[in-house]
Each structure stands twice: as structure tokens, then as C-alpha cells.
Amino acid sequence: MGLKFAVLRVTAALACVLMVLLMCFQPVAGNEQRMGRKLAATTLKQCLAKGGARTAFPGTSEYSTARLAYNLRERYAPSAFVFPTTVAQVQNAVFCAKQVGVGIVPRGGGHSYEDYSLGGRDGVLVVDMEGFKQFSYNKAAKTAVVGAGFRLGPLYLALWNAGKVTIPAGNCPTVGIAGHALGGGWGFSSRKFGLVTDNILEVQLVAANGTVVTANAQKNKDLYFAIRGAGATSYGIVTQFTFRVHDVSAPVTHFKYRWNDKAVLFKNFKSFQSWGLNVPAEISAAFYMDPSGVSWLEGTYLGKKTSLLPLVKTFLASAAPNPTRVEEELNWIQLILVNWNYPSNTNPNQLNNVPFTTNTFKAKSIYVNGPGLSDAGINAMINAMNTGSNAYFIYDLYGSQSAINKVVPGETAFIHRNSLYSIQMVASWSNDNNAVTQTSYITRYWKVVRTYATGQAYQNYIDRDMPLSAYYGSSLSTLIAGKKKWDPQNVFNFPQSIPLK
Ligand SMILES: Cc1cc2nc3c(=O)[nH]c(=O)nc-3n(C[C@H](O)[C@H](O)[C@H](O)COP(=O)(O)OP(=O)(O)OC[C@H]3O[C@@H](n4cnc5c(N)ncnc54)[C@H](O)[C@@H]3O)c2cc1C
Ligand SMILES: *[C@@H]1O[C@H](CO)[C@@H](O)[C@H](O)[C@H]1NC(C)=O
């Protein structure tokens, strides 16, 4: 699902004001520190220049532009940005970061909830992978090779144009495939095709010692395990993915049932939950609610409208009467457009030009396993939705019949394989004075739900306040062993990366 509801469409003018603000943002430093930093910057500049990739250093307009991230909450100041277009240039960036002694992180689409692709702290070298746009489709093998610089919109379009195929990714066209795939990747066909991470057949990455490594089911199996769920930054910079792709040439149906009545939240949620226990994998769906009393069920059926209706009958029978109903039969690429609120007759090429939007927010997540929350739990959860907040809550259905839950938990580093749904809670604000209050609403909500649910959380909705065990559970010790082997000096780190011990 995603954050489309709270998306703030930043106009060009506003973006300019923002860039000026960012340019003025300089960390306070003593004289000596400043000189040390200047020296490091000079060395870094000279070293990166040898690779020949475009760079952006503080004090330039290129730097201010590059510093824009989806979440404006943390405005980290990297030591520099580098924009490689070849694997050799990525290798050189790793070499330079080590030589100068600065941190280094890769950036895909820049949608990390905690701005970890800006380093998660000041002074890190950001390797922006946007230049990696290689794409090829193998019809016979049903696979696609995809560069780490793709965003979801252009990737959906490329796959559709190549052979009416897809990967089961999320709805937001500007999210980067790299971060999305390496931490999971749930979308409106995941119950049928699995998470995006389950469809990674191979990656090519630049490891901490500068070597180019291939990881797949035969080669470097430990790395192949680790990057599917815990692949963000910790083990290296992924330059290229090979994905298993899926035929979506047949008609599909988009559905949405919407209510605007606070009094029916309990009834609708309970109906969603019991329906969700027993839904065929051809349906992927999410439930939404917020304190204003709006609620809806939205999703995709991989089939025609006439065969959808019997499958949502039990949900509609137990939910409140008379929702606003949408049931639209479409082709797959129209569905992708509609999922992002474009009209279905929009030219699909628009997916290559979706404007990069921003937001200022804090999010948390938690998994609920079957059979779901008790009535007391649902009541407590709804009561915890503070009316003073503009927070909203999204419940992404996983469920027993889904391809997601058919993967054996120890097969990949993604451990959340026994879940009925994940809950995402998002609070956003435009005035920073409201940050603490808004954040406290969802924290309180999370604590209430925690007493009824698992302590697991979704690593792609990364939240600085969670322990790593919530994301990686029993796979954490294997991940630490892999980290020791592949990055013994902890070259690739951020506040929630896989540690050495
Ligand atoms: C508006 C919005 C909608 C969303 N919708 C969904 C959804 O429907 N389903 C879902 O599952 N998630 C969704 N998400 C969450 C999303 O999957 C994560 O935020 C994801 O990490 C974003 O990837 P990115 O490449 O855009 O982000 P980035 O910030 O660029 O990267 C995220 C992390 O991955 C690391 N990374 C990036 N590139 C590489 C690389 N090449 N090699 C190694 N590590 C790398 C970064 O260093 C960072 O730690 C959404 C997020 C937003 C903001
Ligand atoms: C880099 O590290 C990997 C993992 O330890 C190892 O297999 C490879 O040989 C190393 N390469 C070099 C050039 O040291």
C-alpha cells in the first residue's frame, strides 16, 4: 500500500525554497574540526575524481538537490554524493571511502523511512545508483535483469512492454527497486507471487573489499540468504538484480469498498480480519482506517470482475452496509496507474515521469499472526486511535494461503512468514513543532497493539526505535556470521545495519 494518502505534492516553487533552506543548514564545528574536514573533503574529491563519476560536494547547488529525500524529517548532511554509471566507479567509491575514513552507503530511490540512504548520520559518502538502468528480459526463462537504479514505475512499465510480465512490488512509482527488494517488498500481487525479495534469483554486488560478487542459489549462498531481507547496505552495494517475473497478460480487477463512519470501524475491521484468514492467493488486499472514521478495503484480484464477486462476498456480508464500491476490470498496466490514483486511461508512459514527492513523517509497524486480534484487542486498538492526530493505519494482508507464507522461514533472511497482516502506522506533520505530539500518538497506538500482537516489525518500514531482533529474529546470528565474513571492518554501516557481534 504505501503513503499515497499523506503525500504532499511539493510544487517546484516549494522545492526551491526547500533547497535554499537545506543549503543554509551547516553543522556547527570548531576551527580544527573544520580544517580536518576540509582536508578530508579535498582528499575525497581527488580520490573520487580518479574514478571519473559525477560528484556533488557541500556548498554546491548539485549537493542541495541531491540531498532531497522522501522523508524530510532527518536532514543528514553527507560528506559528498557520487553518481557512478559503471561497476568500476562503484568499486572506486568504496576504495575512496575506506582510504579517507568516511562512512559509505548506497542510495536507490531515497524512500528510507529513517533516511538511511543519506547515511543515518552526518558525514557519510552516498553512492547514488540512479545511473544503473540496465534492463533485459529473458522470455524463455521468465527472468529479467534489472539495474539497481530503477524506480518501481519505470520498472513496471519496462516489464509490461517487454512481455506483459511483472514483479510483485508496491504501489508507489518513485520507490526504488533496490531498497524495496532487499528488505521485502509487499504489493498488490504479493499474495500470489510472493514478496519482491522472494523473486530475487541473483544479485551482483560490490563487496567491502572492493570485489564484484555474484550471489545466487549456487554461488555465495550465505550472501544470497542475507540479502533477501537484510540486504540494505550491510553486505555491499548491489549493482544489479535478476528477478523471476510473472505473466500478467490476462485481465485483472481493482476493487475498493469505502466507508466514512466512525461507528463501523470495529465491524469492518473484524470482517477484514476473519475474511483475511481464508482468502485465495489471487487476491492481494489492504485495509485502511484513520481517526476521522474513514475505512476501506482495497486490492487486486488476478482475474475477471465476475469471479471476484463471490470471493469478497463474506467480507461485504459481515462489514457495514452500503460502502462506496469500486470494481474495475483492467489490464495490468492500467491497474498500476489506478493504484497510484491516476485515471485508468492515463498514458502508461506517465510512469516514467511521476514527480518525486516528499513528506515529513514517523512510521512504526507490527505484525499480527493468525487468528488475529481478539475483540478486546480490536477495541483497544480502535480506542487508541487518537482523534487529535492525523495518523493513519494500513493493514497489509499476508495470510495463510499466500505465497509469502509458503516460504520456509529459514530459507531467506525475511522471517515474517507466519503473519496474518502487518500494521503500518504513520504520523506526518508540516510544522516541526508538532513532531513530538504526532509521533507520540502512533507510539501509544503501537504499545497498545503490542500487548495483543507479536513484537515483529517490517524492516522496509524501518523505525529507529526498534531492536534488530524485531526485524530478523532467529536469522540474526546467521546474519552476523555473514557480516563478519563479507564486511569484517564494518565498512557498510548505518544505525540499524547488521553488526559484527
Ligand atoms: C511513499 C512510500 C510508499 C511505500 N510503499 C511500499 C509498499 O507498497 N510496499 C512495501 O513493501 N514498502 C513500501 N514502502 C517502503 C519501501 O519499500 C522502503 O522504504 C524501501 O527501503 C525504499 O527503497 P528505496 O530504494 O526507495 O530507498 P533508499 O532510501 O534509497 O534505500 C533504502 C535502504 O536500502 C539501502 N540501499 C539502497 N540501494 C541499495 C543498493 N543498491 N545496495 C544495497 N543497499 C541499498 C539504503 O542504503 C537504505 O538503507 C514505501 C515507502 C514510501 C516512502
Ligand atoms: C573479498 O572477500 C570475499 C569474502 O570474504 C572473498 O571471497 C574474496 O576472495 C575477497 N577478495 C579479495 C580480492 O580479497
Automatic annotation (TrEMBL):
Write down any Gene Ontology CC term: extracellular region
Top-rank lineage group of the source organism: Eukaryota
Query: Is Cell membrane tagged as a keyword?
Result: no
Matching entries from Pfam families are given as: BBE, FAD_binding_4
| Assigned keywords, A-Z | FAD, Flavoprotein, Nucleotide-binding, Oxidoreductase, Signal
What InterPro entries has UniProt attached to this entry? BBE (IPR012951), FAD-bd_PCMH (IPR016166), FAD-bd_PCMH-like_sf (IPR036318), FAD-bd_PCMH_sub1 (IPR016167), FAD-bd_PCMH_sub2 (IPR016169), FAD-linked_Oxidoreductase (IPR050416), Oxid_FAD_bind_N (IPR006094)
Name listed for the protein in its UniProt record: FAD-binding PCMH-type domain-containing protein
| Source organism of this protein record | Physcomitrium patens
